[in-house]
């Protein structure tokens, strides 16, 4: 292996993370001693996308669509059934030992629940400083305390709080601690799995603003997983919509929110509760019937067909690819992709 | 949290009277022009190891027959505790109701005996909870759980209870209700479990339904289904409803009026449209401005600075003053009273009119 001698150029907008046809199936087994596999939960079933340097890619979908499994795969907390991912050109799933450690330094995660993701017996200083135990080269021993205080300051907490315990902080402050811990190793990519969904509205806005400010200052790239479409629109440059382990539509924030062509995206957007009573009256809601099918036994052909009002015979036999469609040039996985009429009757 | 489950023996004889309540009844007129349900100046404290937390500090609201009131607030604002006090399912201790009245059809529930309150619970006022999975018993089929209420409280036979349970499951639009009677809660999806809970709450035809964050644990598409169902039920059964939520968007289409809570007080009370168009309390205003909007891709969200207060050390004067952009000396010194703004609106702010007109510009 010959490592390139020159420093990689850090151009904004070039792909930093590339994911190619990623698949993760969890086996369903029967029997205690002789475990036979009787099926598989297709949590992630063929997902491809690029994350560009300095951008925020939102991943939205309902529970069970595989967005959190995708996050765990990207962090290499799970190994994929098949597929590939590269971070700055290096294979994420082939890396071992020292190389894996270096890769992980570059990609960190912010978790959903700030109450369970911080060890209650450790001080804030120990929590944020723990990454330096695993990656001692990231900060020399003598300078660690100062670095932790810098991090606290960066996320808007007082550096004097270094010796406090998590229970002495509120939910929003704990999420800031989680962000500081993720930033400790100066990663370039941050995977945020529902980072604000456990927080109250007024606190949520503070944490979103912090994430945006940190992105500007540090040139971070975010994968932002969430189920709240308003939050995603606010923070993301591009958005991928997932349904039953697949990306059904992928586009810029404007393409998804203004010119969605996939029926699922259209229904999802129309179901978002609008607080403004006047706008609500004009809201043209698409009511989806039923629930998401089980990922252990997804429908044949198009996975959305069981809940789709456009479904025809071809949808049951032919699985639509996520490719650009005639209606709009961004990728959409629907045979009948078309823009939604703004005044169509429901 | 289902607290105070009735014991079986005592229920059976006590409840033969209320059997007639099983038949659908039109919303009864409230006596003497009073309100159907009224909370008056309620104060609740929690005794904890670190001190006394003042969770409810003088909450008053009312509900008329057939009306929907939304109670909006963030965690710790006291919105659920008020509802639990109405239902009589607060754990006491650690909770302690210091003072106040909860009047249902003119009678104060807080002075009644546990036996009398049990007559009200379920038959007059019923409640559904946020997390249907933990509110249902995982070891019994749902049909049995819906039927339990009917057998114990309405004295129905097993066969009658079974038939009525199917009716109820059809009422809440569970597909193939008869064949799902024997399924266990884990075999239902989140949305269907919430429907089972609603069916249980409706079993005895209550006049008031309290829904505590009924859709918070659900996905948006399912959330819309449940809110539609609640709106339909309210119309068809002419129930009054209290909807507890932290998300104004969810209730905006269903609620007639909204009460906004902060630090155990109602800070603003208005109809949905006025509240959205011209909030008259700085907290409501800040809350509305900090919601990211679906039709807007922006750079900076406006925020409410600081944190909600520690309920063991509520700030002097107006509890919102440390976070308020309109703060003056009077806010630190004097607790604001509810300022009446007309059209049934109130705001607990010294500068309510200025705040309201500020927005209207």
Enter the CATH topology name of the largest domain in chain B: Rossmann fold
DSSP helix fraction of chain A: 25-40%
What is the correct CATH architecture of the largest domain in chain B? 3-Layer(aba) Sandwich
Rg of chain A from C-alpha positions? 22 Å
Task: Please state the second-level CATH architecture of one domain in chain A.
Answer: 3-Layer(aba) Sandwich
Largest interface: A-B, 45 and 45 residues
Number of H- or I-type helical stretches of chain A: 11
In total, how many beta strands of chain A?
12
User: What about the largest sheet of chain B?
Assistant: 8 strands, mixed
Low-confidence stretches of chain B: 1-31
In spatial order, strands of the major sheet of chain B run: 6-7-8-3-9-10-12-11
Strand order of the largest sheet of chain A: 6-7-8-3-9-10
- The CATH homologous superfamily of the largest domain in chain B is termed P-loop containing nucleotide triphosphate hydrolases
Instruction: Provide the gyration radius of chain B in Å.
Output: 21 Å
As residue ranges, the low-confidence spans of chain A are 1-8
């Amino acid at each position: 292996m010959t490592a390139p001698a020159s420093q990689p150029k850090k151009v904004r907008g070039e792909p930093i993370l590339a994911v190619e046809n990623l698949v993760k199936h969890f086996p369903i087994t029967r029997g205690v001693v002789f475990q036979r596999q009787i099926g598989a939960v297709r949590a992630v079933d063929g997902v491809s996308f690029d994350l560009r340097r300095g951008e925020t890619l939102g991943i939205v979908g309902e529970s069970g669509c595989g967005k959190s499994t995708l996050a765990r795969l990207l962090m290499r907390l799970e190994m994929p059934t098949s597929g590939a991912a590269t971070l700055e050109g290096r294979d994420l799933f082939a890396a071992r030992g020292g190389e894996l450690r270096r890769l992980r330094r570059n990609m960190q995660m912010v978790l959903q629940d700030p109450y369970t993701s911080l060890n209650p017996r450790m001080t804030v200083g120990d929590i944020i400083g723990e990454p330096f135990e695993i990656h001692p080269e990231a900060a020399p021993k003598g300078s660690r305390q100062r670095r932790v205080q810098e991090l606290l300051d960066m996320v808007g907490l007082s550096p004097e709080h270094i010796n406090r315990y998590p229970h002495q902080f509120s939910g929003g402050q704990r999420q800031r601690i989680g962000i500081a811990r993720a930033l400790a190793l100066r990663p370039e990519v941050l995977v945020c799995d529902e980072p604000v969904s456990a927080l109250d509205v007024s606190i949520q806005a503070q944490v979103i603003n912090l994430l945006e400010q940190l992105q500007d200052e540090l040139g971070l790239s975010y994968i932002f997983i969430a189920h709240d479409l308003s939050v995603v629109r606010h923070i993301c440059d591009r958005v991928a919509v997932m349904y039953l382990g697949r990306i059904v539509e992928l586009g810029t924030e404007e393409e998804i929110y203004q010119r969605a062509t996939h029926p699922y995206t259209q229904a999802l957007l129309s179901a978002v509760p609008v607080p403004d009573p006047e706008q609500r009256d004009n809201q043209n809601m698409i009511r989806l019937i039923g629930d998401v099918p089980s990922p252990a036994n997804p429908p044949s052909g198009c996975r959305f067909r069981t809940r789709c009002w456009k479904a025809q015979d071809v949808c049951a036999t032919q699985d639509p690819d996520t490719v650009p469609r005639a209606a709009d040039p961004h990728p959409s996985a629907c045979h009948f992709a078309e823009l939604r009429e703004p005044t169509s009757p429901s | 949290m289902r607290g105070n489950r009735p014991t079986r023996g005592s229920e059976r004889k006590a409840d033969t009277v209320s059997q007639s309540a099983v038949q659908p009844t039109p919303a009864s007129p409230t006596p003497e022009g009073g309100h159907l349900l009224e909370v008056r100046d309620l104060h609740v404290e929690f005794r904890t190891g670190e001190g006394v937390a003042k969770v409810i500090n003088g909450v008053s609201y009312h509900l008329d027959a057939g009306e929907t009131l939304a109670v909006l607030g963030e965690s710790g604002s006291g919105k659920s505790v008020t509802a639990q006090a109405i239902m009589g399912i607060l754990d006491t201790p650690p909770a302690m109701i210091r003072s106040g009245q909860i009047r249902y059809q003119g009678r104060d529930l807080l002075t009644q005996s546990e036996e009398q309150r049990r007559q009200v619970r379920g038959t007059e006022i019923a409640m559904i909870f946020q997390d249907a999975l933990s509110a249902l018993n995982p070891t019994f089929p749902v049909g049995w759980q819906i039927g339990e209420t009917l057998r114990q409280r309405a004295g129905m036979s097993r066969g009658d209870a079974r038939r009525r349970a199917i009716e109820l499951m059809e009422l809440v639009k569970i597909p193939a209700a008869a064949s799902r009677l024997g399924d266990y809660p884990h075999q239902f999806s989140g949305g269907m479990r919430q429907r089972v809970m609603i069916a249980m709450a409706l079993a005895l035809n209550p006049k008031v339904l309290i829904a505590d964050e009924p859709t918070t644990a659900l996905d948006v598409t399912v959330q819309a289904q449940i809110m539609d169902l609640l709106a339909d039920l309210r119309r068809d059964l002419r129930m009054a409803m209290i909807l507890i939520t932290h998300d104004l968007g969810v209730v905006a289409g269903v609620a007639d009026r909204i009460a906004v809570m902060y630090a155990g007080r109602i800070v603003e009370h208005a109809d949905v449209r006025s509240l959205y168009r011209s909030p008259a309390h700085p907290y409501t205003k800040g809350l509305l401005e900090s919601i990211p909007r679906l039709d807007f891709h922006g750079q900076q969200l406006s925020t409410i600075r600081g944190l909600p207060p520690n309920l063991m050390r509520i700030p002097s004067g107006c509890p919102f003053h440390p976070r308020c952009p309109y703060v003056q000396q009077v806010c630190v010194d004097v607790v604001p009273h509810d300022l009446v703004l007309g059209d049934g609106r109130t705001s607990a702010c010294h500068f309510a009119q200025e705040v309201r007109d500020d927005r209207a510009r």
